Q: What sequence folds into this?
């Protein structure tokens, strides 16, 4: 499978508030490096991304938000005694006015919703390159007619139209979906299989019917992002009925996860979409540092090679991940499982081209 990647991400490694202390972000360059090594070792061809399409960025994100991301570090350096990372510390919470401040620190709070994201010298180059990777993969999917893998870092599915959070700055999956629409697709599905709900992707497309958002994730009653991802969130206006959340409780077995995935794939099939963007994260296993939905001992056995496989491979979620943790991408299964998901969705109007409908464009954050 063709993989789009870049080394530019190495220049971004921010700070986060974790356990009451400021620490280097868990979302580190190593996660992408290990995936890249696995892809190359498995013999998959890799290419660099095309030039960033700034007009496309403005279709998904607001102009003032993009301006902040691009200029925040230089502005931060002009402050007296700037710290090692640009971070806000006040957010427009309940009871406050939704009004954008003129001050940089105020804008950092206004355009973020968590304390796990910061901006450093290489952040804009990294996030804009990740966006270019996602859109390049979408272009190659259309031009070449085969599933593509976009190795994006930083991730994107928590980023809204005008806020960063959950290690995400630009929404790579949303940008890939919009690119497919711009290139002629009538409707696109975004399938998010990360442990955490893709609140950013949902919010971007919540009032639209040309993008079907389907997410399997830990129930926000007990897990990040806590304030979005419930089953009763189905869309508004033109988007009513085009948002499907499938929240899962702790201890969900592999069989239960596959049942939910079957529901997701059936909804995508019923939606008669022309393409599928997969927000790819499998931080769902009990021994993952940031996810413990699936009890992998019940329903996801270990084969002789040590790879965890579903008892129902026809409906297995895409494998691989860019988070830290115990489940290792170096087994080289990401592209193979992605192809499997692409071919089993039955998603496009022309069933014969179903194997060419899928792009993994967002390596999930939290």
A:
């Amino acid at each position: 499978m063709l993989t789009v990647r870049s080394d530019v991400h190495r220049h971004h490694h921010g700070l986060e508030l974790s356990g009451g202390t400021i620490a280097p972000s868990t979302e580190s360059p190593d996660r992408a490096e290990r995936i890249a090594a696995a892809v190359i070792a498995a013999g998959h061809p890799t290419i660099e991304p095309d030039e960033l399409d700034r007009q496309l960025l403005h279709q998904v994100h607001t102009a003032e938000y993009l301006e902040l991301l691009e200029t925040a570090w230089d502005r931060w350096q002009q402050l007296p005694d700037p710290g090692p990372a640009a971070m806000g510390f006040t957010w427009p919470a309940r009871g406050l006015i939704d009004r954008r401040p003129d001050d940089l620190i105020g804008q950092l709070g206004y355009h973020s919703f968590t304390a796990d994201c910061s901006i450093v010298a290489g952040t804009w180059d990294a996030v804009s390159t990740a966006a270019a990777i996602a859109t390049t993969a979408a272009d190659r999917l259309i031009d070449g007619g085969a599933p593509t893998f976009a190795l994006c870092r930083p991730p994107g599915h928590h980023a809204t139209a005008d806020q960063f959070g959950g290690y995400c700055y630009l929404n790579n999956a949303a940008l890939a979906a919009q690119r497919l629409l711009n290139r002629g697709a009538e409707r696109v599905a975004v399938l998010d299989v990360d442990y955490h709900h893709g609140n950013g992707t949902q919010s971007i497309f919540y009032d639209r019917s040309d993008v079907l958002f389907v997410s399997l994730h830990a129930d926000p009653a007990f897990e990040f992002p806590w304030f979005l991802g419930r089953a009763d969130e189905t869309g508004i206006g033109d988007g009513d009925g085009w948002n499907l959340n499938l929240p899962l409780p702790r201890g969900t077995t592999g069989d239960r996860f596959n049942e939910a995935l079957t529901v997701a794939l059936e909804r995508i099939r019923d939606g008669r979409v022309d393409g599928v963007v997969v927000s790819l994260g499998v931080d769902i296993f009990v021994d993952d540092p940031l996810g413990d939905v699936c009890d992998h001992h019940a329903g996801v056995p270990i084969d002789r090679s040590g790879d965890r496989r579903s008892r129902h491979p026809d409906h297995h979620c895409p494998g691989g991940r860019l988070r830290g943790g115990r489940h290792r991408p170096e087994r080289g299964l990401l592209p193979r499982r992605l192809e499997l998901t692409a071919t089993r969705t039955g998603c496009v109007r022309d069933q014969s081209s179903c194997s060419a409908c899928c792009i993994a464009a967002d390596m999930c954050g939290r």
Notes: Confidence is low (pLDDT under 50) at residues 296-356. The radius of gyration is 19 Å.
